[in-house]
Amino acid sequence: MLTAAVPRDPDSVRAAEIVKLVYAALADPSRRSAALAARLRLYPEHGGLKPVNSSTTLSACMDSVANYALLGTLDTAYGLINQCLTEEPPDAAVPSSAASFFWGPEMRAFRQDPGFQPLVTRLNLMEYWNQYGPSDDCELKNGTLTCH
What we know:
- The longest helix has 18 residues, at 10-27.
- The protein contains eight helices and two strands, in the order H-H-H-H-H-H-H-H-E-E.
- It has 148 residues and is mainly alpha-helical.
- It has one domain (10-147).
- A hairpin with a 2-residue loop joins strand 1 (138-141) and strand 2.
- The radius of gyration is 17 Å and the shape is globular.
């Protein structure tokens, strides 16, 4: 017996479209501007800065931040993550996936950007690294984290 197709969640459809376009842009950098334009087209109500999921969780925000970082728009990525952190309730715990997402090889440029130090300080990661040492490919000198 055939059943009627259940309409998909519009945010899921939009998120899938963005992911597809981001990976196409990674394979062919000439498609980068098309991916950024699609972001604005699919999320016009927030200038394209709405997380790719209607949920305002930090995990959904990280997906959007990763998209912008992978497309080379690091200022936008940092602006968005700081906006999402500001909108989180003060007692909200940052999921471990939020911190681990920084360390993929595709996020190297994100880690090397000057905006990384204030972000990891805001996420209280510096305290951990001062005690246990920094992550691979990074060094900590006089309270300053430098990633290579």
